[in-house]
Amino acid sequence: MLRSGVRAALRQQSRALVRNESTTTKAAEAAKDTASKAQDAAQKAQEQAKALGAKATAFVGSASSQASGLVGKVLSFKDPVIYWGKVGGEIAKQVYTKEKMSPPNVAEAQSAVQNVLVQLRNPETFKNASQQDYIKWVVYAIELMGFFAVGEMIGRRNMVGYDVPGLKEEHHH
Hints:
The protein is mostly helical. The chain contains 5 helices and no strands. The longest helix has 75 residues, at 2-76. The protein starts with a helix and ends in a 17-residue tail after the last helix. 0% of the residues are buried. The model has no long low-confidence stretch (mean pLDDT 79).
């Protein structure tokens, strides 16, 4: 009986070993399969990243060339603008000289300002004004704004913004 008990125990142990071996080989195969799939996925991801990198490089190169072309076109306007500005200045000098124009003296300027202030304070000025008067006032206002804008550009020595030395430009997006 002891012998049969030992035999039964050995049989169970040998079956367990066989079962363990099959489970071990299946697990090893499953691990190899999983590793192979992971490697394939990593390889596909790497290929996609390379393709995306190539597209990004092409896009940046295209945008860079377009931006440099635009800057070149804008800078090509610089010389004609300077030329025609000088021509306009010379014509203005000739007209100023031929017409014997001169800036108003202080008394004339004060008289003109006082006259304008008196008319602005009087409500009858606006009630009795014709359409031609209103048009004339709008034209004067536009001229005044234009002279102010040109004066600002001359004062800044720049068409847009002030050139402040030592100020770093920071762009927040």
